[in-house]
Amino acid sequence: EAGVVQSPRYKIIEKKQPVAFWCNPISGHNTLYWYLQNLGQGPELLIRYENEEAVDDSQLPKDRFSAERLKGVDSTLKIQPAELGDSAVYLCASSSSRANHQETYEQYFGPGTRLTVT
Amino acid sequence: GQNIDQPTEMTATEGAIVQINCTYQTSGFNGLFWYQQHAGEAPTFLSYNVLDGLEEKGRFSSFLSRSKGYSYLLLKELQMKDSASYLCAVKGYSTLTFGKGTMLLVSP
Hints:
Chain A is mostly beta strands. Chain A has strands at about 5, 10-15, 20-25, 30-35, 45-50, 55, 65-70, 75-80, 90-95, 110, 115.
């Protein structure tokens, strides 16, 4: 079974430029998450989707960040314009609300996109 | 909100046992997760506790005390490949909140 796929893996852009990240979750997972992870820190939730609906975007800086999950499968996260402080790893994760018999609802993470803003 | 504390860094020797502690204060609790993250890689699931007690899975065990807001991850028979960051994460009403992670360095 394929895991969570993200692209690109690395991106270097100049400040004020736009950038977009793409995520394909595990097949059948209806919940999708975007996290931001700074060096030496744990992941911080940006937005959570249940199918195509954004159910928690309270931590998403909406003045420059946007996200979409058309058709409830793939998702894109966009930053426009990027700032120096946006340099970080952007992680996508997915989970199934129909938990397995262990009832863990564990999240499966993609490899992340490392963004460097210069 | 959630507040999660874990040590920043720990060192141990190959073959030894190490315990990584995590304390938390939450407004809602629906389970505690431990994830392992190697440098430059995605976090991977290690364990899940929702009831008090010890969960054992091979060389790794995780303990939870809900009344004390406390958990630990126990790693036995340490191997060099166990050098990684270990993330404690608490599930609230609907989302996971992660601690900053404990960087474990295993030396020969």
